[in-house]
Amino acid sequence: MSDVLVLTRDVPHPPNAGDRIVTSGFVRGLAARDHAVHLLSYGGDGDRSRAAALSDPCETVRLVSDPGTSLPPRIRKLGNALLGRSDVMRMFYSDAYRRAAAEAIRAVSPDVVLAEHPYMGQVFLDREVKRAARAADARLVTNAHVVEYAAHEAYRDLVDDPLARLHLRHEIPKLRREELSVYRASDRTLVLGAEDRAELDPHVPGPVRRQRVGLDLDAYDPAPGADADGARLLFFGSYEWFPNEDAVRYFARRVFPEIRARRPDAEFVVAGRGAPDSVGALDDRPGVAVVGEVADLGSAVRDAAAVVAPLRVGGGTRLKVLESMAWGAPVVTTAPGFEGVEARPGEDLLVADAWSEFVDATVGLLSRPDRRERIGRNAREAVESTYSIDAAAAELVENLGIA
């Protein structure tokens, strides 16, 4: 049995968002293999009940006050720019967390310290943390989730807002420098997709290893929903992740009208927490309904004729695609949305290389209930064979060096 200290930005319970799902699967998979998992997370009094829910898979859970600032985002970004710091990385840094990480390493003496996201791995650059890790003979591992600077570079080429482009022009070089410094300070780096591995391999001296995510498949009931024979399209996600906002706005304005011209009964339902005003305003468009966070996401997925993931920025693994497949829903996505997903295009899901193909694929699915049923069934089987928590854990212990 090995001790693994996991550093997270958020308590990974309930597993209802991308990074929570990834971390929850890793924690539960390691615990099921009799490894002792210790969790150090940002969180406050309102998060203690969620932390308590992890008392079974985790030996210990400790919360550190969130480093959030009361400054408006534009002022915060300007301040970090003037100080020559990455705004993305700085949002998740605090001296309190750095000290807590060093204390946890000394107390636990872990075999591995696993940082979930590079901005949590910033502590690996601290002398006190490095000294504690050396004394414990602990291996430092960062799970990238997504290569942040590469995602921001892709977004920079798409954004129309001049101020946003100006911010990205100044932010990306700092983000790239600081993010790569974390991977270089790590003994190993994990990535969730082959594209991210290809990006990092030339820049990181330590091993960069591909890691699958693990889903609790019992939580995904693939039974068909009551309205699965209709013309409802669903998108869901957290809008804290900027590619989701970009995808929804572009699809609603540029792509969905073409679908609706051929299928006037088509609906586009936009679900997920944290939708900004720019997404909420889409509710006024014909056939579009912005519903916010839904209590039962599984029912919403099963009640849709198809899930659309019209992402223009890739990286990592798109959990919304894997979750939809686990629920047995047919998915239409783009090449960026397909990154990190191990499945067969045309059989387990549909992948469009051009927006005209996206429209054709979606309209075709709406017209063919038999094909929707077949793709949904194949999707569930693909996830079962590749993305169980046990399969992910088997790979993870190898990647962490604790097999």
What can you see in these coordinates?
- By secondary structure, the chain is of the alpha/beta class.
- It has 2 domains: 3-214 and 388-400, Glycogen Phosphorylase B (Rossmann fold, 3-Layer(aba) Sandwich); 218-386, Glycogen Phosphorylase B (Rossmann fold), CATH 3.40.50.2000.
- The protein is 46% helix and 16% strand.
- It contains 17 helices and 13 strands.
- The chain has helices spanning 18-32, 48-52, 73-82, 87-90, 95-108, 127-136, 148-156, 162-185, 194-200, 242-262, 277-280, 297-302, 319-326, 335-338, 355-367, 369-386, 389-400; strands at 3-8, 36-42, 58-64, 112-116, 139-143, 188-191, 208-210, 232-236, 267-271, 288-292, 306-309, 331-334, 350-352.
- Strands 3-2-1-4-5-6-7 form a 7-stranded parallel β-sheet, sandwiched between helices. A 6-stranded parallel β-sheet has the order 10-9-8-11-12-13, with helices on both faces.
- Helix 14 (335-338) links the parallel strand 12 (331-334) and strand 13 (350-352).
- The longest helix has 24 residues, at 162-185.
- The protein is globular.
- The mean pLDDT is 94.
Q: Which CATH architecture of the largest domain is right?
A: 3-Layer(aba) Sandwich
Q: Tell me the structural class.
A: alpha/beta
In the residues, how many domains can be counted? 2
Largest sheet entry: 7 strands, parallel
Dominant shape: globular
How big a fraction of the residues is strand? 15-25%
Order of helices and strands: EHEHEHHHEHEHHEHEEHEHEHEHEHEHHH
Strand order of the largest sheet: 3-2-1-4-5-6-7
